[in-house]
Design a protein that fits this description.
Blueprint lengths: L1 E10 L8 E9 L3 E5 L6 H8 L7 E6 L2 E2 L5 H8 L2 E4 L3 H4 L6 H12 L13 H11 L16 H13 L5 E5 L7 H18 L2 E6 L2 H7 L2 E6 L2 E7 L10 H8 L2
Parallel strand pairs: 3-8, 3-9, 6-7, 7-8
Antiparallel strand pairs: 1-2, 1-4, 4-5, 9-10
Helix pairs in contact: 4-6, 6-7
GO molecular function: ATP binding; ATP hydrolysis activity
Protein name: ABC transporter ATP-binding protein
Organism: Salipaludibacillus agaradhaerens (Bacillus agaradhaerens)
Length: 253
């Protein structure tokens, strides 16, 4: 079942060459679709456009059958709770002045009137936060700490806990392991895979790291200079009929 349907998406800044051009793809419910490409290829611009953080020039964005590309901020609110994002830098994503427990409760506080939880119980704030921390395999003792008291891997787990806290349907993961060491990267990829299966999530996994992409995704899209040049099932990554640019990326994999 298609969750996200994107047709002809184009975004240009100040009359320059389009940052993204004629982007078309589908993302199915429950799958991890990876978007890979070198830095500056337009991956993060696409993410911001899908989230409606950036206005698009043309194209369509369908979410669960509803067109959202022209909705006002007020009209978008019911959809925002269903689409969350995890960025590359967890330190920038967390308010340094807030304890972890307060950062975790914030999304639910914003959307509690529109959200009905099925995986987590919000019977009490303490219980709810405990469940979120346990879901991302963090000790509950971290709830009263501040972001600077956590390691990079722990901070990224907190941002993931925030993202799943209101039980969205889609999470856009924009280079979520890029700032982590190899051991932490491996642990985060395992966690994300488990959460997708256990919470019935869908991911758009954006990365320049083919090893991570190959491990976590079911399908892969390759972006070059703002355009999707290749789309295929994960099992076909090493196929001989891949686009020349894909083959170039694979050669340094």
């Amino acid at each position: 079942m298609t969750m996200l349907n994107v047709e002809g998406l184009t975004k240009t800044y100040h009359g320059e060459t389009p940052a993204i051009s004629n982007i078309t793809f589908n993302l199915n419910k429950g799958e991890c679709l990876a978007l890979v490409g070198e830095s500056g290829s337009g991956k993060s611009t696409l993410a911001r456009c899908l989230l409606r953080i950036e206005a698009i020039d043309s194209g369509k964005i369908g979410f669960n059958g509803s067109a959202i590309e022209k909705l006002t901020e007020r009209q978008l609110k019911p959809f925002r709770k269903k689409m969350q994002v995890v960025f590359q830098n967890p330190s920038a994503a967390l308010n340094p002045k807030l304890k972890i427990k307060d950062s975790l409760i914030d999304p639910y506080a914003q959307y509690k009137r529109e959200v009905t939880l099925s995986h987590f119980s919000n019977g009490s704030k303490t219980s709810y936060i405990k469940q979120l921390l346990e879901a991302v395999e963090l000790p509950t003792s971290l709830a009263d700490r501040y972001p600077h008291e956590l390691s990079g891997g722990q901070r990224q787990r907190v941002t993931i806990a925030r993202a799943i806290s209101i039980e969205p349907e889609l999470i856009i993961l924009d280079e979520p392991t890029a700032s982590l060491d190899v051991i932490s990267q491996d642990a985060i990829l395992t966690l994300l895979t488990d959460l997708r299966k256990n919470l019935n999530l869908s991911y758009l996994f954006i990365s320049h790291d083919l090893a991570a992409v190959n491990r976590i995704s079911q399908r892969i899209m390759v972006m070059k200079k703002g355009e999707i040049v290749d789309q295929f099932d994960q099992k076909d990554l090493f196929a001989k009929d891949r686009h020349p640019y894909t083959q170039e990326l694979v050669s340094i994999f």
